[in-house]
Amino acid sequence: MFSYNSVKRISTIVCIISWVLLLFIGVQEQYLTDEQIPHAPFPSFVKGLILNVWIITTYFNIWIFFQPKERDFQGLLWQIFVVALLSTLLSMGVNILLTWLRDDLEYNLPVLYAIFFHVEFTLLMTLLISTFVTWKKLILFEQTRFTHYTWLLFEIFLGITMVAHFFRIGTIDVYFKIPSIFLTLWILMISVNVRWVPHLNFQQKIQGIFKLGFIILALSYFVASLKFYFYEQSLVSDDIVKNLFPLTLLIFVFVYAASSTLFMLFSLPTSSVFEKKEQEISSFRNLSLAVRDGKKESDVYRVLLNSSLKSIQADAGWIMSNDYEVKVVTGIDEEDVRQVLSDLRNAPYNGGAPLKLNYQPYFRKENANRNYRSILAIPIIVDQQVRDSLILVKRLHNSIDSVMQSTVNTYVAQAGIALFNLDLLSKAVKNEVYKNSMQIAKQTQEALMPKSLEINENIEVYVTWEPAIVVGGDYYDMHRLNDHEVSFIIADVSGKGPKAAFNMAQMKGIYQSLAREESIKPDEFFTKANAALTGCIQRDTFITATYLHVNTDEMKVDFARAGHCPTLYYDTEKQEAQFLENRGLGLGIVRNNSYSKFIHNHEIKYNHGDLMILYTDGITEARSKNGIDEYGYEHMKKIIEEYHELPLKEIANKILEDIYGFMGKKAMDDDFTLLLIRL
């Protein structure tokens, strides 16, 4: 299998070889004729075959070369213009050289005419085939079924004219056998397919008319140039020019160029209207894309200002805030801006509704020196509120009519929507960033909590914990000092969210540092912790906590309460629950050395199976359905007394179910922690 590049190379080589053979046959025939040497002329079949091979390979190479971008009509016309220009210049060079040889040097040989004829014929056919390829792309743009089949039949007809070479090279008389009216109507019917013309703007149409006009002149020049070979009786190669295929191709190319030129000329007056509408659509699109592409408010304002300036041909403009502060400005100096702002203040303009001002220079002397006499101010409304205003000015008076104002109103409304969407997007991004940050904070806080609760074979522990808003200020922890001593802490930082979580992390660091001292008592722990926290937390922040030191060998618990919720203790021997109401002050409230006076150490002896329930105020302060009553302490006490024999997890679930039933929902309004210890 041949590759695509191989096919191109083979086609180029065949094209060159066929042209050389065609030139050789033409020159050889002329030479034999001039010398009057009896010879067998080349069969028309051979000459026609070589000519067709050259035409087909030339068409293939040009078709490969002319591959512009989609809808690049200017690129196509430019390519043909360049081909026409080069072909014409080369042909002129050939004619100048021929004239010089014939007239000045009197070098008048038919063989020389044959060479120059084949060169000019090659240039003309290259131009015709290149133009044909381009016209095909233009005609079949947005094609219909009728256009498709009409063109297909025309290509078949051209193929038939090429087959005529195999029977007779000179077939000009065939035209007289074909109804000329039918052929003319056929070409005209194809030539009215100019759907690509409306896609050009005014400037592009002017350029297109110039390029097509030059192509028409180039074709006319070639026709005039080749007339010489028609009248040269001694030239035997002129039968190629009289062939049906080049003649049909020439007529079609010429007619379509003329047809396209006329359509462009007739559509010029309406081009500005369509361009303006297209510009409006493009501006609306740019305003919408400003949000999608992550633009800022200033970018939206620039698009709005530039679009409005172009739509009404304003001389200058700017965006100003409600307090007359200029934000985005173009085309005007500061002095003129101050003059216009003064006019708006005197009007007065307050952003409540659009305002149009006109200053007549002929009746008032004070208006004679104004640079801008037409002023349009339109408020930019975002989410039913006036955010800023668009100001447009023109030098001529009464040069902003109601249609222009309506167009600008549409731009401003679209800009308001874009700004509103931009605000929503900005808020969404911020919320997403906040959400991601909170998720990271949650993962960090969860990492700070103890991973394992199996710290002593004589103690069973269960804990459930949940912040109100992803992260919170509740904290619990435990530390095993040795085989028979364990410390527990539960703490509650004032406030919620990231700030409380940050202070909670500091509390953990202090606990992990101080709890490692085996001889430290709970009151000593809080005294040292208060001193450490004083320099870490803000003055409006405090921490409540309960600290337990359990000695399983002596079966006793030392504990202290720094303003925290009282510990609920169930005594299996007495078969009753009670709250350990020892006093103490929260950490961070007293910020001096006197804190030790406000904290006290307590000790209790326990029995196997006794329960200690530590919790935060998120449980006791849970609100009922009416939003007034609090859950309190007694509900939890009753549950412990009734279900103390159950596993700790089931006891915790009983408490939570009771709280949720009391609240009428399964979500706490505050951070909560529930720590159960079975001694």
From TrEMBL:
Residues of the PPM-type phosphatase domain: 456-679
One Pfam family it belongs to: SpoIIE
Keyword presence, Transmembrane helix: yes
Annotated TM spans: 7-25, 45-64, 76-100, 112-134, 146-168, 174-197, 209-231, 243-268
GO molecular function terms listed in the Swiss-Prot or TrEMBL record: phosphatase activity
Record's keyword terms, sorted: Hydrolase, Membrane, Transmembrane, Transmembrane helix
Protein name (Swiss-Prot/TrEMBL): SpoIIE family protein phosphatase
Organism expressing this protein natively: Flammeovirga yaeyamensis
